[in-house]
Amino acid sequence: MVTAPRGPVRRRTIAAASTALAAALAVGGLVALAPSATAGEFLTNGGFESGTLSGWTCDAGTAVVSQAHTGSHALQGTPSASATAQCAQNVTVAPNTTYSLTAQVNGSYVYLGVDGGASTWTPGTNGAYAPLSVSFTTGATQTTAKVFVHGWYGQPAYLADDISLQGPGGGTTTPPTSPPTSPPTTPPTTPPTSPPTSPPSQGLPTHALVGYLHATFANGSGYTRLADVPADWDIIDLAFGETDSPTSGTIHFNRCSATECPSVESDADFKAAIKAKQAAGKKVLLSIGGANGEVQLTTTAARDNFVSSVESIIDQWGLDGVDIDFEGHSLSLNSGDTDFKNPTTPVIVNLISALKTLKAHYGSSFVLTMAPETFFVQMGYQFYGSGPFNGQDPRCGAYLPVIYALRNDLTLLTVQDYNSGPIMGLDNQYHTMGGADFHIAMTDMLLTGFPVAGNTANMFPALAPSQVGIGLPASVNAGNGYTAPTQVDQALDCLTKKTNCGGYTTHGTWPALRGLMTWSVNWDRFGNWEFSHNFDSYFG
């Protein structure tokens, strides 16, 4: 979830430090190769010294300016929300030949490459020009290539100069005839594939309130006995089931000690409270993971340990199911694992198998919820795994194959809309946590579906609205991204009634949106129950 189990605010391993483009970790292939106008030069006007964009075909937002690396002129590109400010040039090349493309660039998220082939990029040059270089080899029958330079959607302006394509012999150029590459296409107004026809509800009310209860640790919010949790809460997630060794797969649930939590109830009273909550129609789940509970099911043995240990905990306490709150490095996609519908990474495949086994063991009454961070879900709209050039964070979008595989067994998905960097929504604009806009945009993505890594041929399908809740911190003490009650209400108005939406236009109206999740019951109690009381006042 969000707050450090042993302190006032739970540590987040990635999201708080991430930005909207934090999927990229490293700059590939940066070497200083000075351009030259030799017989092997294949580009026209690579230094823009004509004072024009002659020889290039460019997006809107591009111009020749005087901030040159050498000479008097350079290219400036100013990306928009729907274009990368690309300039491209077609050249005649020889088959089976290696070429070197170089440039001097200044800015953030500047890309250099050949269409359909190799490329490189930099996340930033610290306000000065820096070299980019990439080599590519043409195919056996290839006679033309289109090289490009561009920025990235919604990012600041960049500069490029001294762009050079070197290869054997003298080159000639042909202006590009095809337009620049399109940005990710906004999904259709209807879901790309149908959501589950009868998603599991397990007797939940139409609108449910979900909260995490600090059951294994104490922090600044104080210990709350399960029996003292008000009746407002429909799902209570016991935080946390953890593992001593991330790759063992064995989960343990060690209740908070009397030393750490002086008011902790006895095991017998805790078990009685679980039964009382269930008798009142509530669901009590084991939440697995959290910031300190890294779980990596790297082997089938770890998978089997996971299943057997979780079954043991569920049976011991008589719980209704599990909540998967894997954070940190628990889920990460291996290089080459590019299809979320057919994952090959062991930690992904084994988790899916383990959850399906648990579902089959307990049957239709088994409650399965997930609470991933935005980095692992909505960031998948732009980036998935390590990407085509292995330069991205391999955890990006890593929850998508798990959600997809369990979509017909998933009771509720409550993405953590907090402790997050800016995330691009379906409007191709970046949205920042803390206000209604962020929750509207992030939830719209789940209820509409979206192209993974911008590929419209690879759509992540919409979930049913009854399977989706919005995750928020209960108070300013609980985590970054606190949203005031009026802003929470605005988000609910927009998503369930399509009113009060502000500047964002949703792709539908979802009155069956299941509800809200918060970190945590303890922090809500600490804040005089502001979060739960607002939920009650809104839904009645």
Automatic annotation (TrEMBL):
The reply to whether Signal figures as a keyword in the UniProt entry is yes
Kindly indicate whether the keyword Signal belongs to this entry.
Answer: yes
Taxonomy, superkingdom: Bacteria
Domain GH18, chain residue ranges per copy: 207-540
A GO molecular function assigned to this protein is:
chitin binding
InterPro entries assigned to the protein according to its UniProt record, in alphabetical order: CenC_carb-bd (IPR003305), Chitinase_II/V-like_cat (IPR011583), Galactose-bd-like_sf (IPR008979), GH (IPR017853), Glyco_hydro18_cat (IPR001223), Glyco_hydro_18_chit_AS (IPR001579), Glycosyl_Hydrlase18_Chitinase (IPR050542), TAT_signal (IPR006311)
Alphabetic keyword roster: Glycosidase, Hydrolase, Signal
The residue ranges flagged as biased composition, category Pro residues, are: 176-199
Residue span of region Disordered:
163-205
User: Which Pfam family name is an example for this entry?
Assistant: CBM_4_9
**Signal peptide location:** 1-39
Record SMART domains? Glyco_18
GO biological process terms held by the UniProt record:
carbohydrate metabolic process
What EC identifiers does the entry list? 3.2.1.14
The similarity annotation says: Belongs to the glycosyl hydrolase 18 family.
The identity of this protein, by name, is: chitinase
